[in-house]
Structure formats: C-alpha cells, structure tokens
Amino acid sequence: MALDTSGAYVIGVDFGTLSGRAVVVRVSDGAELASAVHDYEHAVMDTTLASSGATLPPEWALQDPNDYREVLRTAVPEAVKAAGIDPATVIGIATDFTASTPLPVLADGTPMCEVEGLRDRPHAYVKLWKHHAGQAQADRINALARERNESWLPRYGGFISSEWEYAKALQLVEEDPEIFERMDHWVEAADWIIWQLCGSYVRNACTAGYKGILQDGAYPSEDFEAALNPAFKGFAARKLVHPIGQLGDKAGGLTAQAAAWTGLPEGIAVAVGNVDAHVTAPAAKAVESGQMLAIMGTSTCHVMNGDTLAEVPGMCGVVDGGIMSGLYGYEAGQSGVGDIFAWYVKNQVPGRYFDDAAAAGKSIHQHLTDLAFAEPVGAHGLVALDWHNGNRSVLVDTMLSGVVIGQTLATRAEQGYRALLEATAFGTRTIVETFNASGVPVTEFVVAGGLLKNPQLMQMYSDVLRLPLSTIASEQGPALGSAIHAATAAGAYASVADAGEAMGRVERGKYEPNAQAADAYDKLFAEYSLVHDYFGRGANDVMKRLKAMRKEALS
C-alpha cells in the first residue's frame, strides 16, 4: 500500500448503453456509499437521427456524445451528495465504457457532430458498440487479411468484427469521405471521456488492443489499408496512432472545467480509460488464470486472464496486459442476452401473463422464469439459437439471426422464454469449450451484471457449463472496477491487483452444478450444436439471404 487510505474516496463512472452511473467508493475497503444514474437524453439512435428526424438505415446505432458529458454534470455530484462525504476527500476518478464505441473528433477533441454544418450528418456521431452497418467492410477486412496471411488475424480468433474500429472507420471513409478527412482523431468514447476530464488524450491499452488491432506495438500496415481502399491508406498513422496508457495508470489531473462539472477537487487523479467488461475483473476478484468473468446484461462479455498466448477460434481478442499487467487478457462475447429476453417479453408474451405477474407481485421476467423452471429439463421440446443480435463469438457474424425449433400449437410462452434462456447458456458453453480446446482452460465461471439476480438462470448456467459459478457481491461491478482503477491511479495501491484484493468482492462457488440436470442439458446442447453449425458455418445461409431481402425491401 502506497499511502494511508483512511477517509479517502474515489468515484467510478460506468457509461452503459442507455445511461451512465456514478458510484462513490471508500478506498480502504471498497464499500459503496452511494450512486446516481443519468439516462442519456438521446438513448440509442437506431431508427432516426434526433437532430433532423431522418431515417437511419438498418443496423445503425448512434449516440450523442454530449449525453456522456451530462453524466459527469449530473450523476457525479448527485452521487457525492447522496454519499454525504466532503468532496475534498475524493482522490481520484475513473470511467469505463462500452466498446467499440468510436467517434470522429477534431484535434481539440470536439466531436464532428458538434461542428457547424455537420449536425445532421449521421457519420459525424458516435457509433455505438452495436452499430453493425459496417459488416460488409468487416467481411472485406477479414477476406483480405486471410488472403495476405496477416499475422494479427489469429489474435482475434480469425475474424475482425463489424463492431470494432477498423470496420466502422472504413464505412466512414466510403460513405462520408468529407468527415473522414476533416477529423483529426478516430477516438474511442472510453478515451474521449477521459480527455474531457483531464484535458489529455491518452489511448488506453485495452481498446487499442482489442478493438483497434494494435498487436506487438503495431497496427495493420499502410499497404493493407490501401488494398482495402486507396482513401483508407494511412488511416492508423493519421487518425489512430497516439500514446498508449496502461490500465490503472494516471492519464492526468482533473481540469478546472471538469471540476466545475463534477464538484470534485481540481487536479485529482484521472485514470486511463477502460472497457466495462475488462474493468470489472478486479472488482469480482477474477484476475487469476482460468477464472472466466461474464458480465451478463443486455449482452454478455467474457474476459479471462491467461499465462500463455494462444489462438482461440472466434475470440474477440487476446492482448498482452489487456486486463492485468503481466498476463494475457482474453475476450469473447455474446451480442444479445438480456436484450433477447426483453424482446421476447415485449413482443411474444400474451397480456394475461402480465396480469398474472402483477397479481402475484412479481416482475414479468420472474413470473415467466418461475413457470418455465417448474418443468424438468427438456419438457418444452425446444431448442433455440441466441443470435437475435448476431453472433460475436465464436462465429463472429452479425448477419446471423435467431431461431426457435420445436414449437407446436401446445407451446406456451414460458417454454419459449426458457428455450431462449438456455440458448444463451449454450452459447456461453460453446465459447468455454472452444477456449478449453485451444489450451486456455476455464476452471471457474464468475458472473457480474444485472442478470445474476435471477437464481434459476444462474443455476442453469452452472449446470450447462458443469462449472462452479461465483458471483460478484456488488450490483455495480463496472463502476466498482473503475473505482479500483481510480484508487490505483491516485497512488493508494501499488497495483490494480492489490487494489482489487482490498476493494473487490465475490461470493465463491455460490452455485454448483447439479449432475442430473447437467446430464439432461448435455442432450439439449448436442442439438444446439448441430443447429449452431448448420446455420452458422455455411450449410444453410438462409439468415443472410433473408436479411439481404429485408435490406432491399427497405432501401
């Protein structure tokens, strides 16, 4: 421990898909004193552009960066006030973000959507992580990388996602070259918000490695960029290259302007930016090799440290120091989990279920879960694919879509709901088995995120995976993880690992696999795997043909 932490506090700010949350955390033991949430005014712009009302094409997902500033202006001071602490006792602040969520900016950090005359240009805005409109560009990046045998491609499981920096930037240069040329930086929101706080642009090692194809100190070559599009040549050198900050390091001190926004002392430590999933690992004490952390919410991101470098098919990436210094950080993920359950409830559940849930004093999700798990495994006669928002791992294909097989006129709403819950667990098992087969064994499964509140779901995951399942003992995992990084950046602890040991919290082995249920789930998983490979590995591309028809019909 580098200094006395008694009476000191830090702020962790978690920027999610629809809102930002600030949490006040005590440095000495990680106690969370208070939090506050600010909903983004513009939420996700996926159908229309707020400034003009113009219709956006399919697969777009934009955000307004000023919504992020408003989190600093409102949620941070509200959290400090609710905690009842003296702001002068706050020694650091850190943030985390969804990723890849890049935006084009000028040299001083001004977003292009705030430049006069560009407010109504969709490409001037933040492209949220689930902006998938660059899939055609991602396909070309992957095809060219395979053709040229690029050494960095296996580090990403053999696929570069349309969610990441390069595909989104290539779409930008091809669809709005003026904005591409006028922007000085293609910056992750995770780094832009730190720039807003401390006045310095530092590119964090996590997003640079996982989302920006930075491997062994180099980005893809200019020859590669030019082969994609002559106008793209020099993209990394001109728009991307910037000093890299290591996780847990100090990016700078809080500026006077940001101090006025937040009510915090000017000059306190601002930690290097980070990603919501990766920053959570020390908060859940899931930093040792073999401990796979799943942040389960609207989507799921799986992160894990390993002692050795391995190539895992379909992983989102492996980065030296991407989660913790001295270890290789691995990432995988599922693009839709909670979002799928929410879609099903909103669109597929009859009104009488809502009435019954209200009469029982339950949420509709809990009511459906209770009904669904009253039956034994396999009683619904269904198997589903969890691809309603595409597949992130291990197929890395946003053109895939959801399927439910086995429905009859007797199928009930709760049975379809359970099939979707199971599909997400089977998707996770596919990821885990791929890691195991690649020499990166998963020995413990740790869960953070909102879905851990569902005990039936958690037990099912343990059964499906045949692994002990631990849970983070915090409802604000990413924000707590950010606070841990803030404490490290402020010098309260010598390392993120030390800070996590003191401030993190986890319930080990909260769920253990039930052998009988696990045997039954093995049979369903075998069916899932057959359907997974049939639709996902080229035997039947009907999903892609249907999406093409939809796009043509809407154009």
From TrEMBL:
Short name of any one Pfam family annotated for the protein: FGGY_N
Cellular component terms (Gene Ontology): cytoplasm
InterPro entries in alphabetical order: ATPase_NBD, Carb_kinase_FGGY, FGGY_C, FGGY_N, Ribulokinase
E.C. code: 2.7.1.16
Domain Carbohydrate kinase FGGY N-terminal: 9-280
A GO term, aspect molecular function: ATP binding
Biological processes, Gene Ontology terms: L-arabinose catabolic process to D-xylulose 5-phosphate
Enzyme type, top EC level: transferase
Alphabetically ordered keywords of this record: Arabinose catabolism, ATP-binding, Carbohydrate metabolism, Kinase, Nucleotide-binding, Transferase
Known catalytic reactions: L-ribulose + ATP = L-ribulose 5-phosphate + ADP + H(+); D-ribulose + ATP = D-ribulose 5-phosphate + ADP + H(+)
HAMAP family hit by this protein: Ribulokinase
Name of the featured protein: Ribulokinase
Species: Demequina lutea
Underlying gene: araB
